[in-house]
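Course assignment 3, question 2. Fill in each field.
Student: A.L.
Task: Predict the tertiary structure for the chain below.
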Amino acid sequence: MIYNAKNVFAFVLIVLCLIVTSQISQAKILFEEDFEGGKLDEKKWFPKPEWKIMKPEEKIAALGNGIMDTAGGQANISRDDSFKDFVFEADFNAKQGGKITGFVFAAQDVADNFYMHQISATGSGHTPNNLRWHIRLKGAWQVFPEEFLGGEEVAPEVWYRSRWLVNNFNTKVWVLESEDFWKDPRGAKMRKIADWTDKSRQFRSGAIGFRASGGEHMRYDNVLVYDIGDDPFAVKPSGKVTTVWGRLKVRD
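Answer field:
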């Protein structure tokens, strides 16, 4: 009886460990958006007429059947405003109209208080091949453009994967061509292009999103937000990223 009781206890312990491990793994993905389904998911985002969901023109498997296209309309943000110390990833394409993209972090509201950082591509009219750091405070802009590290360049009309590590008031940024990234997401060697700290320490947490002003045209896809130190491709995101990653693993 003692022997059987020990076996039962060990079995129960293993099952509990597996349940806890599974729950922890699934909790690593804080936010996911692949813009499939033909329309904006208003459970995740606020309605925005300038945010159009369309089929990609490029033959990149990871883009699936839906991407987000925007030209103007200013910022739009996630309904979840709790992001604090995280990694944000997204594919982006700076179109010929503007040759620039805008990423929003730590948003307190949709209009007046947030960080907005632009990846300014080659040929942009706004300090090309710069990371244009912005603070939007009480409706006024503060701008801190910095050249990409190591002389790196970002071309317009090319899909890139971006990775933003937001830790306290510091933000680091990496990029890699999306086609190369999605061949091996876990082993991809991304290029660091920027590192900036907000010395004024304005916004500790908030919503994430994107921003385009008049004359700027940009596209986005495959948004992932996860905890610092986690590997989102070691678990199973619920949408298109899962399908792509699964297909890549089978191909290996």
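Instructor remarks: The first strand starts at residue 29 and ends at 33. The longest helix spans residues 2-26.
Grade: pending
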